[in-house]
Amino acid sequence: MTDQSPADLAPRILASDRRALARAITLVESGRAEHRAQAVELLDTLAGEGRQALRIGLSGTPGVGKSTFIEAFGMMLTGKGLKVAVLAVDPSSARSGGSILGDKTRMERLSRDPNAFIRPSPSQAHLGGVARRTREAVSLCEAAGFDVVLIETVGVGQSETLVAEMVDLFVLLMAPAGGDELQGVKRGIMEMADLILVNKADGDLKPAAMRTVSDYAGALRLLRKRPQDPEGFPKALPVSAMEENGLEKAWEEMTALAEWRRANGHFDQRRAEQARHWFEAEVREGLLARLRRDPEIRAKMRELGDAVASGESAASAAAAVMLEQLGG
Ligand code: GDP
């Protein structure tokens, strides 16, 4: 495919050609070596352009209203003249065979909006692959001139941590809940959040939603103050994605926080740390891949692994033998 070459794709992406963007994302998702080489060249070319979007992570359990929220929030942003890209991280899709986040009926209005771009999660085997794909897709969307990149993830396992490591702001979408449900919310997740939005603050659920907001606000006040936060953050707010209430306020808080962090150096510092983190992760992954490719090393790994599995050697001792062999 000639129209997949970096030389051809780069200018088209810079000109916001959505087909070129989609093709480039397919390229970064590919497991084939020649595609990888093209993807790397393309990403490197585009990195020099220095275009930046506000990267927002959005997490929440299934049914909390993520797609309803993203559709309403996304439409509001495009209504302001902003270009919005939506990417999904759904590690569970690899197991279930089909992505819930890839459901075509989701975000129907937003997907028809010329200023929006929606890309569902691919079926990838492991979280590391999903991480790289998403991170690279974010870069491609930035190069294509998107102002806001929303990264959606289901609130399960490590996917939140992974997304938190590639965004500027992390938003948790929660459902109205009783006090004891709040106890069950993992502290680590609370600590990652910049903003907790309690959705479904409408109709019969409104009183429960308002109580939940003050419960979360109370819990957030107990957390250690982070240097990257101005007074009052992290914050909890009520929203209704369905009635499109509270969305403007949520956006105001997001932009206020991002601006404060920009003005105080935290924004760039965090991006720099994230870039370094991903660079090191790439090197680590690459080294492991190289080890797995070498038949001699693989045989040695198997042999030592067997010794560890049978209780003949201690894991750390076997690892030391392996490392010594590699280093020597
Ligand atoms: P997701 O699984 O997190 O993407 O959740 P969905 O957006 O698919 O929403 C799950 C259900 O909650 C759907 O039946 C929505 O209509 C409903 N829902 C979403 N947002 C709201 C809201 O703001 N208020 C109410 N009452 N229901 C909502």
Walk me through the structure.
With 328 residues, this protein is an alpha/beta fold. The chain has 15 helices and 7 strands. The chain has 3 domains: 1-49, Single alpha-helices involved in coiled-coils or other helix-helix interfaces; 51-263, P-loop containing nucleotide triphosphate hydrolases (Rossmann fold); 279-327, no CATH class. The chain has a 7-stranded parallel β-sheet with strand order 3-2-4-1-5-6-7, with helices on both faces. Strand 6 (195-198), helix 11 and strand 7 (235-238) form a beta-alpha-beta unit. Helix 1 crosses helix 3, helix 2 packs antiparallel against helix 7 and helix 14 (295-309) packs antiparallel against helix 15. It is globular. Residues 94-101 have low confidence and may be disordered. Guanosine-5'-diphosphate (GDP) binds at residues 60, 62-68, 199-200, 202-203, 205, 240-242. Pfam families: MeaB (PF03308). Keywords: Kinase, Transferase.
Which fold name corresponds to the CATH topology of the largest domain?
Rossmann fold
CATH class of the largest domain: Alpha Beta
Strand line-up across the major sheet: 3-2-4-1-5-6-7
Largest sheet: 7 strands, parallel
CATH superfamily of the largest domain: P-loop containing nucleotide triphosphate hydrolases
Give the helix proportion (percent range): 55-70%
Please give the domain count. 3
Order of helices and strands: HHHEHEHHEHEHEHHEHEHHHH
**N- to C-terminal distance:** 43 Å
Overall structural class, as computed from helix and strand content, comes to alpha/beta
The fraction of residues assigned to DSSP E strands is: 5-15%
* Count of distinct strands: 7
Question: Which shape, going by the Cα principal axes?
Answer: globular
CATH architecture of the largest domain: 3-Layer(aba) Sandwich
Small molecules held by this entry: guanosine-5'-diphosphate
The Rg value, from CA coordinates, equals 22 Å
**Distinct helical segment count:** 15
Q: Low-confidence spans: pLDDT under 50, at least 5 residues?
A: 94-101
Mean pLDDT: 88
InterPro entries: AAA+_ATPase, GTPase_ArgK, P-loop_NTPase
Family: Belongs to the SIMIBI class G3E GTPase family. ArgK/MeaB subfamily.
Keywords: Kinase, Transferase
GO molecular function, one term: kinase activity
